[in-house]
Backbone:
């Protein structure tokens, strides 16, 4: 098993940037401003967030049981964990359900987890919800930046040869294309973090797997594999530096588009 090298509580006094920070800024700089600069309260909570948290908690429970030597939990235990988190999360005010209901989403989550438990083939579990805080380096000259890159990796497994595999749980309205994982930021960030910690899959590559719960009428479970290597990490350094420079310069323009419909700051944005 992989030993933990940092604790989330230690991040409080650290200049840091995370996957969520970067994704939010890339989606809409003004949303980043409302959420992380002035900490504006949300106007509502999209129900997709507690739904995703409940699914992640259930899958983490599944893998933690294996890591702790308790064996593979029965599907009923995994679903009970999901329902416990789901009911707690949806008891709060301010949820936006749109066309869905608590009952229909609970049924969907149950079906997805039944499928997951029947189709997943776990390897050796090295870490579950593994926290990291690693250095970032300027792509122009190589100096270490003030900011740390922080986050949580859903799962780290190893194969029979001891090679590490990063696994990230995803939910999607449709199946992933084989190349879709290559273009997503989170897998790249997690691979870079493991590389910095000396835990790469091979000398030059880190293997990433997306476990995708597909929320179609007939639910599906899909696994998508891809590699990241040093050239990808240099690009990540460039993107991160440019995002940090834009934030430091106060560039918080709105990015009007599909994300506006369910934005938690829509009224505040449109009143400016």
Residues:
């Amino acid at each position: 098993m992989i030993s933990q090298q940092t604790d989330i509580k230690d991040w409080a006094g650290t200049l840091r940037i995370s996957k969520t920070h970067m994704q939010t800024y890339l989606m809409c700089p003004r949303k980043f401003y409302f959420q992380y600069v002035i900490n504006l309260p949300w106007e509502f909570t999209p129900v997709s967030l507690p739904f995703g948290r409940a699914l992640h908690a259930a899958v983490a429970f599944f893998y933690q049981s294996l890591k702790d030597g308790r064996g593979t939990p029965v599907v009923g235990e995994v679903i009970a964990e999901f329902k416990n988190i789901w009911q707690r999360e949806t008891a709060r005010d301010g949820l936006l359900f749109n066309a869905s209901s608590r009952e229909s989403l609970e049924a969907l989550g149950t079906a997805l987890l039944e499928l997951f438990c029947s189709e997943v083939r776990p390897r050796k579990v090295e870490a579950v919800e593994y926290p990291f805080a690693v250095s970032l380096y300027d792509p122009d000259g190589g100096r270490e930046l003030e900011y740390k890159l922080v986050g949580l990796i859903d799962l780290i497994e190893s194969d029979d040869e001891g090679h590490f595999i990063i696994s990230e749980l995803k939910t999607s309205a449709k199946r992933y294309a084989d190349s879709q994982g290559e273009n997503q930021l989170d897998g790249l960030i997690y691979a870079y973090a493991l590389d910095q910690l000396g835990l790469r899959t091979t000398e030059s590559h880190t293997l990433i797997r997306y476990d995708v719960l597909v929320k179609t009428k007939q639910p599906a479970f899909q696994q998508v594999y891809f590699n990241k290597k040093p050239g990808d990490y240099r690009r990540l350094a460039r993107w991160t530096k440019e995002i940090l420079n834009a934030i430091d310069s106060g560039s918080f323009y709105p990015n009007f588009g599909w994300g506006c419909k369910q934005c938690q700051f829509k009224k505040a944005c449109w009143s400016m």
Summary: Helices lie at 19-27, 29-37, 48-67, 75-89, 102-119, 185-196, 230-248, 266-270.
